[in-house]
Amino acid sequence: GNTFEDYLRILQSVPAANGTAAYMRVSSTVNSSKLSLAEKGICEGIECQSPELVIREQGLYLIFCYLNFHFPNCSKSPIDLKIELLVNGRVDSQTLSTFCASETCQDETFKTLLQLHLTHLDKEDKISVTLNHPEFLNDVSLPNENVLGVLMYS
Which GO terms describe its molecular function (predicted)? Predict the structure, then answer.
């Protein structure tokens, strides 16, 4: 299947509009709901400083966030997972998914969420991601598959 490295190679070979693109691995941070950026990835025409991406040119952007979650213990009660895409510290888009455990649930459970957001961004806008349950982000078995990406449309 496609992995972080596969997508990274593809994005490196296809120029984005005006060379503006970011594709960064994200991970959870201690005592914070905001995800941090890893050094590994693509960052062209955008400033990539953890925990935010800073836009350098105004325009129409596609922001996407792909996250894997791991529930080490089977829960009998529902868990709401919420991803918030923040622009300048304010929620610009959010995804809510309720994970409902069944009576026959296994010891471990995994879930993947994808959020896409098309928006106009101005110069110096800051993009970040928060989770309501960062402790469930799968940083262990799939650390390279948790990504935040931004592509500028021409």
Answer: tumor necrosis factor receptor binding
**Residue 81 or 3, more confident:** 81
CA–CA distance, 38 with 58 (Å, rounded to integer): 24
On the 0-12 / 13-18 / 19+ scale of CB atoms within 10 A, 147 is buried
What radius of gyration, in Å, describes the C-alpha atoms of the chain?
16
What is the per-residue pLDDT for 82? 93
Hey, which CATH number is domain 4-152, 3.40.1190.20, 2.160.10.10, 2.60.120.40, 3.40.50.11540? 2.60.120.40
Q: Which whole number is the average pLDDT over 140-149?
A: 84
